[in-house]
Specification:
Radius of gyration: 16 Å
Structural class: alpha+beta
CATH topology of the domain at 62-197: Aminopeptidase
Strand content: 15-25%
Number of helices: 6
Order of helices and strands: EHHEEHEHEHHEE
Shape: globular
Helix content: 25-40%
Oligomer: single chain
Largest sheet: 7 strands, mixed
Low-confidence stretches: none
Length: about 210
């Protein structure tokens, strides 16, 4: 049975391994390690969540509170992986990452994690959640079209992006593109700023 729970220190090593599986092309320096996860839990425990199948960790998300910022980099957010850019009184929940083990994709895990994040937003009385999505279908097309044209097609529904399209279906709204956001060739380094206001409803659905 799949369950969403708050991340605990005993999950740290399994989460480190899941990072390598979920983000194989991400620069290793920008992947969270076990020590990072333990630090995140100590700093902002309610914002760290994972999905378990028995003892197996099959999904995860790490969040902080942060001001709404349309111009930053992943490195500036994660600060060496420690997430010390966390602002305890800020009005937005920032999703630093979210991932599902490949064996468990298509089973509602990502939606359940987004819904859990949104429930936290509402419980804390925040303005909403934000993230910067990786347009993971763009890397192979970067030599053919501009990023703005690619994102416009994805937003219009004329093109499906493995990451951004799913986030739009959750209810996120695009607010711009950041060049040089992250060191990952699947998105040619670009990120798409996405916001989800607190008033929006995000049903968790059923994990299968």
């Amino acid at each position: 049975m799949l369950v969403v729970t708050h991340t605990q220190p005993e999950h740290a090593e399994r989460l480190e391994e899941l990072q390598r599986i979920v983000f194989p092309t991400l620069d290793d320096a920008q992947r969270f390690k076990a020590a990072h996860y333990r630090a995140h839990i100590a700093m902002f425990p309610e914002g760290q969540m994972c999905v378990l199948d028995g003892e197996r960790v099959v999904g995860m998300t790490s969040t902080i509170r942060h001001a709404l910022d349309h111009d930053h980099t992943f490195a500036e957010i994660i600060e060496g992986g420690w997430l010390t850019s966390h602002q305890p009184t800020a009005r937005w929940l920032y999703g630093a990452d979210l991932g599902t083990h490949p064996d468990y994709r298509g089973r509602g895990i990502a939606r359940a994690l987004y819904a859990a994040r949104h429930a936290l937003v509402q419980r804390l009385g925040l303005d909403g959640q934000m993230t910067v999505g990786m347009p993971s279908g763009y890397g192979t097309l970067a030599h053919e079209m501009a990023i703005d044209a690619y994102v416009a097609e994805v937003v219009a529904g004329a093109r499906v992006d493995p990451t951004i399209s799913a986030q739009l279906r959750i209810g996120f709204e695009p607010r711009g593109v950041i060049d040089g956001y992250i060191d990952d060739p699947v998105c040619a380094g670009y990120g798409v700023v996405l916001v989800l206001p607190a008033a929006r409803q995000v049903p968790a659905g059923r994990m299968s």
